# Entry
Amino acid sequence: MRKGYEEILHNAAQEVDYVADFLEELTLVEETRKLWRAWSGILDHYAKAVSAMRRATDQGKSKGWSDKFLADQKNDPVLQYAFQSRDHASHVFEGKREANPRTVSVGGLVSLSGNSSVTLSNNVMVGADGSTRKLPDGTLDTKDGRYVGGSIPKWAVNEREHFVILKDVKTRSGVWSIPNPSTHPSKQAIEIAEHINDWLKAKLSEANEIAKLEKPR
# Structure
């Protein structure tokens, strides 16, 4: 390992902890405008954790592990998308960073976000086979995109949390597609972040085990 590897791995562990912190924020944050801060934090500290572990292990007996570590990161489409997303965010400021707000919907036909108070009546859903279904009549109140009351009961509505809207990423090295297109858009960023978090923790554990062998007995 490189001289000073103990401090470098200590710093890598901090970066891994920060990824976990921002993952928690991404899933729990109340304000929609803060979703991108959490997502950007995950990408930034992920890249720093990779760099730190790579630097600690790129010399001596650990170099074989270090090379495989980097190859694994490059060959994993989820990890590579996240890495390229971070590079893109650091150098490209054109393009809107979008987040879908919280919404309350009735039958998938009427959708409300923010603070609303509406009266619904005579709304009918028509199925692909031509069948019809009448939606409930009544009042519906929302606050910050969440159901707060009205004569239409909560069980009759669908609530969806806010989420980061991911897009394909174009960098100098190519175009990187969203790696989990079959996942609902509302879950894509969280799924990617969880994968990053789990992978970093596993690799940090491996690096620490290798570090133990470096110490004189």
